[in-house]
Design goal:
Blueprint: E1 2-10, H1 14-32, E2 35-40, H2 45-51, H3 57-64, E3 68-73, H4 88-98, E4 103-109, H5 122-125, E5 130-136, E6 146-151, E7 154-159, H6 165-180, E8 185-190, H7 196-209, E9 216-221, H8 222-231, E10 238-241, H9 243-255, E11 264-268, E12 274-278, H10 295-308, H11 312-327, E13 330-331, E14 341-342, H12 345-354
Helix pairs in contact: 1-10, 1-12, 6-7, 8-9, 10-11, 11-12
Bound molecules: nicotinamide-adenine-dinucleotide.
């Protein structure tokens, strides 16, 4: 297969971690007989320096013309005092909106070699943690009207939470389709005992569930979900939920797995094109020192293979190579532990490339 990938190296450690990820993708292409064609895209602080804005229209167009987009990270202290419309994050928001991405998908996977980094008890962790939170990204209370007014001698604030059926259906489908590519179990999280938006959410999800009889579907209230994620995370495969609940639950889920440097993510919209990026930022404190953990970005490339390119074996090969490098005791500084060997960003890349 031939695939075009828009590559946003970004700022801080971005170029280092993306550099290692492209080596891994090149090795995958070589082994499985594919051609990946990369197009460099400027976004974030480097685009502000070069073009005077964080996401020039021509750069967005390059992303829209590609089969998928790989991003390192953007931002850093150099641009902290820029006016709001010229800040690096504005590029990210513009990219998400421009690509029409309405689903953010974040795996919570505990690598057994890093089990000690989880804040959960060994008796919970030993059952395994491997699930994914599919979060609606552009609806709900974050995008409703916000207002504050004087009311009977005090201030009163109102935030509107709204969802229409088509918004629920399209994210619901991503939940079911994601489950089909995993262990075929979907938990839909809502607050249907209180909220109308959740009652509509549940009705739409039940309708969809009839179209996916091969996926084991269940509902869970959000307060219970927050408890179950720390009490027995092994019960989950895919969680699908609305924007606010997903924001909170996906952060909770990433905390229980240990190092921030290990966690990939994808954002999807219509069609197969997605945006793939690690969940961490540009880590300016270690930028340019060859210390960054490239695994979050490398695993994002594995997600790209699995979810945008339908290359399951290729994704498995990348994940297996990460597993092997960790088994050998290699660790970057962020996850270093007794008895392990400290690896630079490039050494970790070397090891993963070798094991594919
Ligand atoms: P951060 O995630 O960049 O760093 C937090 C801590 O984790 C730092 O100590 C850093 O060294 C460490 N860390 C992060 N990723 C690592 C990796 N791959 N390997 C080893 N250590 C790693 O968060 P921050 O310090 O709050 O933000 C720094 C900059 O990144 C800010 O400008 C922020 O706006 C930006 N940011 C960008 C994104 C994005 O591009 N999606 C996301 C979050 C923050």
């Amino acid at each position: 297969m031939n695939k075009t990938i828009a590559v946003i190296r970004g700022d801080g450690i971005g170029p280092e971690i993306v550099g290692q990820t492209l080596r891994v993708l090149d090795r995958v292409a070589e082994k499985f007989g594919h051609t990946f064609i990369y197009t460099d895209v400027d976004m974030g602080g480097n685009a502000i320096d070069k073009w005077g804005e964080p996401l020039p229209a021509a750069m967005l167009q390059k992303c829209l013309d590609s089969d998928s987009v790989l991003l390192g990270a953007v931002g850093g202290p150099k641009w902290d005092n820029e006016p709001a419309h010229r800040r690096p994050e504005k590029g990210l928001l513009g990219l998400r909106a421009g690509m029409g991405l309405y689903s953010n998908n974040r795996p919570a996977k505990l690598w057994p070699q890093l089990a000690a980094a989880s804040p959960l008890k060994p008796s919970i962790v030993e059952n395994g943690i491997d699930f994914i939170v599919v979060r609606e990204l552009i609806g709900g209370v974050y995008f409703g009207n916000h207002s504050t007014e004087e009311c009977e001698g005090e201030k009163k604030a109102v935030d509107i939470m709204a969802y229409s059926e088509h918004e629920i259906e399209r994210i619901g489908r991503i939940g079911f389709e994601t489950a089909r590519k995993r262990r075929r179990k979907l938990t839909s999280v809502d607050k249907a005992n209180v909220l109308d938006t959740s009652r509509l959410w549940r009705a739409v999800m039940h309708r969809l569930a009839e179209e996916y009889p091969d996926v084991k579907y269940s509902d869970m209230l959000v307060d219970n979900a927050a408890m179950q994620i720390v009490k027995d995370p092994s019960q989950f495969d895919v969680i699908v939920t609305e924007n606010l609940f997903g924001d909170i639950l996906s952060d909770e889920a990433s905390m229980i797995t240990g190092s921030i440097g290990m966690i990939p993510s994808s954002s999807l919209g219509e069609g197969s094109r997605g945006l793939y990026e690690p969940i961490h930022g540009s880590a300016p404190d270690i930028a340019g020192q060859n210390k960054a953990n490239p695994i979050g970005t490398i695993l994002s490339a594995a997600m790209m293979c699995r979810y945008s390119f339908d290359m399951a074996s290729e994704a498995d090969a990348i994940e297996h190579a990460v597993h092997t490098a960790l088994n050998e005791g290699l660790r970057t500084g962020d996850m270093m532990a007794d008895g392990c060997r400290l690896a630079s960003c490039t050494e970790m890349g070397d090891a993963i490339v070798t094991h594919i």
